[in-house]
Design a protein that fits this description.
There is one protein chain. By secondary structure, this protein is an alpha/beta fold. 47% of the residues lie in helices and 12% in strands. The protein contains 14 helices and 10 strands. Helix 7 (212-234) crosses helix 11. The chain binds 5,6-dihydroxy-NADP (NZQ) and zinc ion. Zinc ion is lined by residues 143, 195, 198-199, 268, 282. The site of 5,6-dihydroxy-NADP has 33 residues, from helix 5, strand 6 and helix 6.
């Protein structure tokens, strides 16, 4: 296995009523706050009122940027970066799901540079030397943005959706209260759960030798989502279910499970093209792609990993030949996404045809080949998109 660095300095307040610590944490960075949020769900659940009451009581000067879109756009980032400069902001408080937190990360970085924030993503790949401090209050369990160094931003003018990782973007403090996710509807709960599973699957399906302990950890997290996502959908205010999904979402992508694995991810680059061209929900795209990608990559050399997945995650009977076990594991995942979670199971059903497959496949492969679990050329990716129709 390869060497690795583990460094996750985000301070997490987990559980109910932890917001009493919000102001003491914000104060460490200053008193001028940019509060960012999405389309208004935080007002419906009265979280906005609670936060504002705390901050007003403690003498903070609060500026607001609302309306951050799902699949957040570069224009929102531009606006936020500009507001930070104009109002001399000390700290950004992101309240919402991955879209709000992601956009806020690049506002925080954009606030400290003179160039257009899109330069962080385009061919210039401008360096991120620093960012204003970010505090997050998570309201949807999915992306892990609350405890990771990444973010993904869309530019509708160029049909691009591009991710960027940088340690300066890691939230300093995150508040994870499962009750804030009680209002997440069935569809978003399902999509978020798929996203969590995908973050694990992207790392788990890897033939590089690594720690057995990490494989066990990943299998446990996958089983956790399989157990609790349907409960959270049936009983939205089930604390145990929401808490398990929330903490799993953070640990699925905060760097811990990576160990020394160096291979690139596969389904995420393919999905980001779907969202870039058709503005679909990230988790839905991943649900449609993941079982097809697994099917496409399966061969005699890697079958053992599929067998491990099938038996340890879905309890598939191991008294059959290896290929049958592997295929049964893919089928169980397929059934979980499309029957248990009730998601639409192909691209045609959500109005996507093959018109952009060639260009999307090329963009998904970046500079040539997607070097993941199995190397994929643009032709391979196009075939996987075809399997999703
Ligand atoms: O905008 P509001 O009104 O808040 O509504 C949102 C939005 O419509 C709603 N929602 C959020 N919390 C809610 C709620 N509705 C009711 N009650 C609540 N408590 O849910 C909708 C979706 O929100 P969004 O933030 O877009 O979802 P998610 O957290 O899944 O974020 C998706 C974005 O994150 C990126 C995705 O590509 C996508 O752009 N990702 C970020 C990653 C990262 N930072 O590491 C990794 C992921 O792989 C992913 O790519
Ligand atoms: Zn994801």
């Amino acid at each position: 296995m390869n060497n690795f660095i583990y460094n996750i300095p985000t301070k997490v307040y987990f559980g109910e009523n932890q917001l009493i610590h919000l102001c003491e944490e914000l104060k460490k960075f200053g008193t001028r706050v940019l509060l960012t949020y999405g389309g208004g769900s935080i007002k419906k659940i009265s979280l906005y009122d609670k936060i504002m009451a705390e901050m007003n009581k403690n003498g903070f000067e609060v500026f607001e940027l609302s309306g951050i879109e799902p699949n957040p756009r570069i224009d929102s980032v531009r606006k936020g970066a500009q507001m930070c400069k104009e109002h001399n902001i000390d700290v950004l408080l992101a309240v919402g799901g991955g879209s709000t937190i992601d956009a806020t990360k690049f506002m925080a970085a954009g606030a400290l540079v003179d160039h257009d924030p899109w330069d962080f993503f385009n061919e210039k790949r401008a360096t991120i030397n620093d960012a204003l401090p970010i505090v997050s209050i998570l309201t949807l369990s999915a992306t892990g943005s609350e405890m990771d160094t990444g973010g993904v931003i869309s530019n509708p003018e160029t049909n691009d959706k591009i991710g960027r990782l940088d340690p300066h973007l890691l939230p300093k403090v995150s508040f994870l209260d499962p009750t804030n996710t009680y209002s997440v509807n069935e569809y978003q709960t399902a999509c978020g759960s798929v996203d969590i599973m995908s973050h694990i699957i992207e790392v788990y399906f890897n033939m590089e030798p690594d720690l057995y302990m990490l494989d066990c950890f990943m299998e446990g997290m996958l089983r956790t989502v399989v157990k609790y996502a349907p409960i959270a959908m049936r009983e939205p205010d089930n604390y145990e279910a929401r808490a398990n999904l929330m903490w799993t979402s953070s640990w699925a992508i905060n760097g811990f499970i990576n160990g020394g694995r160096a291979k690139a991810w596969s389904c995420h680059p393919m999905e980001h093209e779907l969202s870039a061209y058709y503005d679909i929900t990230h988790g839905l795209g991943l649900a449609i792609l993941t079982p097809r990608w697994m099917e496409y990559c399966l061969d005699e050399n890697n079958v053992s990993k599929y067998v491990q997945f099938a038996t340890n995650v879905f309890g598939v009977d191991s008294n059959q030949d290896q290929m049958s076990i592997a295929r049964e594991g893919i089928k169980r995942l397929y059934d979980f996404f499309f029957t248990t979670l009730g998601l639409k199971n192909n691209l045609s059903e959500i109005g996507i045809g093959r018109e952009n497959f060639a260009i999307m496949a090329k963009k998904a492969c970046g500079k040539g080949i997607l070097k993941g679990f199995r190397n994929l050329t643009p032709e391979d990716v196009e075939k996987i998109y075809e399997m999703c129709l």
